[in-house]
Amino acid sequence: MKNILLVGFGKMGSSLARGWVKENSKAKYNISVIEKKVIPQIDKTFNNVNFYKNFDEFFLKKQKIDFVVLAVKPQQLNEIKDGLLKVENKNTIFISILAGKSTKWFKENISNNLKIVRAMPNLPASISKGITAIFCSKSISLSEKLIIKKIMSSVGTVSFVRKENQIDVITGISGSGPAYFFYLVEILIEIGIDLGLSKKESVNFAQNTFIGSAYLLDEENKLSAKSLRENVTSPGGTTEAALKVLMNSKNGVKVLFKKAILNAIDRANQLKQ
Predict the structure, then answer these.
(1) What would the DSSP string read from start to end of 246-269?
(2) pTM across the whole model
(3) Among 117, 72, 122, which Cα is nearest to 98's?
């Protein structure tokens, strides 16, 4: 049985815990959570998860720790640094899902011998449909990588990257990506209402258009996004007229999205401080 200590129980931390609990009949995880905030109601899903308010309370149990998963906000890392220093040993693997914080930061601030992994999941992990990018420091063995993959696969697809700076790019594209998706749905709903649809009608058409389109991308005999877009774009038709605006090379969606993603990457770099 692998002992996992999850530090932080926000949206992403709780999503990871939920995935591990679902897999527990197969994988046999002993899960502990440190969360300083009072959690008013814990879903019965987590009945077999041990909750602690801080590291001191957790250490009283004298449990072995195989994996520490850090799911706090990057700005909170210094608050838990002393606890991490007490946890660290040569056999414990740390998995950080914090945006921006590099493996170098952990080695300089916790231990130079730290076994550290960076991971970037996204919000669909809450329904086990996420995708997680993983970068492993050189201290992680192949057998350990396989266990890490198994742990993170409980909430969706896993993809290893060879260069650490790719994590920051993936943060901007995939980590933040669900927010872009939801915002596009939000925009279509608002425009539909502006143009005369009822709120109920606009929500129905906008949401189901995106849901159905996502299913098309996920079909077994799937076409690329570009091919699907071309299939629905008839020459001289309404879709082509709309795409001429959206695909404008000077101020179209691609230009705005690239600017937005670069902003996200810049913010990740700022968080490295």
Answers:
(1) HT-TTTSHHHHHHHHHHHHHHHHH
(2) 0.87
(3) 72
Contact 218, 157 (CB under 8 A): no
Three-class SS of residue 185? Answer: helix
Domain ranges, residue 221: 177-270
Are 41 and 145 in a shared domain?
yes
List the beta bridge partners of residue 5.
Answer: 32, 68
Half-sphere exposure of 114 (CA within 13 A, CB side): 24
Q: What is the pLDDT of residues 154-212, one digit of tens each?
A: 889 999 999 999 999 999 999 999 999 999 999 999 999 999 999 999 999 999 999 99
Cα first-last separation, the chain: 36
The backbone torsions φ and ψ at residue 178, rounded to the nearest 5 degrees and listed phi first, read -55, -35
Which residues have C-beta within 8 Å of that of residue 135, sequence separation ≥ 6?
103, 117, 118, 119, 160, 161, 162, 163, 164, 166, 167
| Amino acid at the residue 233 | T
Indicate the number of domains in the chain. 2
Beta bridge pairs of residue 2: 29
Q: Which of 131, 150, 169 is the last residue of a domain?
A: 169
For 67, the enclosing helix (H) or strand (E) is: strand 67-70
Q: How far apart are CA 131 and CA 9, in angstroms?
A: 19
CATH number for 183: 1.10.3730.10
Name the token pair of 204: 């129905």
